[in-house]
Sequence to fold (413 residues):
Amino acid sequence: MIRFTARNYARIAQAALTRRVPVYAHWGITHRCNLTCKMCGIWRYGDEKEELRPDEIHVMAAKMARLGVVQLSIGGGEPFASKNLETAVQAFIDQGLNLRVLTNGVPQGNGRNVVAGRAYLDRVDRCIDLGLKNFSISLDSLYPTRFDDICEVDGAWDDAVRTMTHIGQRLQGVSGAMPTINCVVSNLNLEELPDLVRFAGDIGFAVSFLPVELLADAKDGVRNWEARFIRYRPELGIGRGEGASQVRARIDRAYDRIIQLKADGAPILNSTPYLEASRMYLKTGRFPADGCDAGRLYFSVAPNGQFTICHRTVHQHLDFMDPGFEEYFHSALYEHRRMLEAASCEGCMRACWIDTSSMFRTMQGFFETARLTIRPRTARPLDFDQARQRWARTGDAPAPPSGDQDQANRAAG
Ligand SMILES: C[S@@+](CC[C@H](N)C(=O)[O-])C[C@H]1O[C@@H](n2cnc3c(N)ncnc32)[C@H](O)[C@@H]1O
Ligand code: SF4
Ligand code: SF4
Fold:
C-alpha cells in the first residue's frame, strides 16, 4: 500500500492522472530463507552469489527514485537472511522512498537460541534507527501449533509475535508508522480472520489479507516459471469434503465479518473492493476483471537485478541494473511488450498489485487508503507476554474441513 506524505503527493497525483508513474515497486533482496512455509517455494531458489552488492544497491536506489517510485517493499525470501539489508534500508531512505520490509519475524537460526534472538532484534532496531517505519510480518493463525506447522519450524509463532510486539512498542506514536500483519487466507484459518484483526489492533498493527495461491498438481512448479514460488498443498485449499453451498457460506461469513470490521474502523489495510474481489475469487476462482497496471504503476526486481512487470511474469526486459534501463523503461518498445504481457495474463490476487490499481481506479479505494494512513494510533500496544496470554490459542487447533483440490486448481488457474 502506498503511503500518503506531502513530498509524494505530486508523484501520486501524476500517477492518478496518467497511470504511467511506477509509484510502487517490490525488490526481493534475496530468495534465501530460514523457513520452508508449506505454501511457499521461494527458498528453493536462494543463491547468495546472484545477489546485488552494496554498491549496486545504491545505484538501484537512485534509479528507483528517478523513475518515480514512492513506495518500495523489500521482500524475498527472507530479507534478514541478507547481510546487506541495513545497507539497503539506508540507501532507499536516503533517496526519500517510503520503505516497507516484509519479514517472517523469526530470527535466523530461530529465537529459542537467545543469542540469535537478541541479534535479530538488534538488527530490527538498527533498521528503525535508520528511519524504517514499516514492517510487514507474516502470521496466519492464533494457534501457535497451527502456525508452527505452516512454517515447518517449532516456536515460529512465539518468535514472530515477539518480533511484532517489539516493533509495535518501538513504533508506537511514530508518525507515518503502520506495521502490518500479512495473513494468507486458507482452509486452515478462514474462521480466524476476525480475531486476527482484533489481535493486530491490540499490538498496534494493521492487517492485510491475501488468499492463498496453490499449484494445481505436484509437477506444475517444475514446468512453469510463474509457479516456481508456490506449492502443491491441497490441504490449504478451501472446501474439500463440503458441499458447494457450505463452502460459499464459510467464505461469506468470514468476508462479511471482516468487511464489516473495516467499515467500523478496524485496521485492515486492504481496500473494500479488494476484499470483495478476494471473496469472489475464493468462491468462483475468477480473478478481478479490471485489467492490470503491472509495469506502469508498479514493477518487481529479483535478487539478481532482473526486472519484471510483476512477481509472476518473466519476459525479455532489460536488466534493471543495465545503464540503459531508464531509457528502455520510457520507450515505446517497453510499453508494447508490457501491454502484451499484462493483457495476456489470466490475473492474480496479489494485494500489493491489485490494491495499488484499485487505489487509482476507484474513489472508494483511494479514500480508504488516505483515511487509513492518516489515522493516528493512540492505544498502548500489548507486550509479548500480554499478547500471548490474551491471544494465543492453547492446545491443538480444531481440524478444518480437509482442503479442496478444486480451489487449488482454480487458484493455480
Ligand atoms: C514470500 S514472503 C516474503 C517475506 C517474508 N519471508 C515473509 O514470509 O513475510 C511474502 C508473503 O507471501 C506470502 N505467501 C507465500 N506463499 C504464498 C502463496 N502460495 N500464496 C499466497 N501468499 C503466499 C507469505 O505468507 C508472506 O506473507
Ligand atoms: S513465506 Fe516467507 S518465510 Fe515462508 S518460506 Fe516463503 S519466504 Fe520464507
Ligand atoms: S494480473 Fe498478471 S500481470 Fe498483473 S500483477 Fe497479477 S500476475 Fe502480474
The two ends are 26 Å apart (CA to CA).
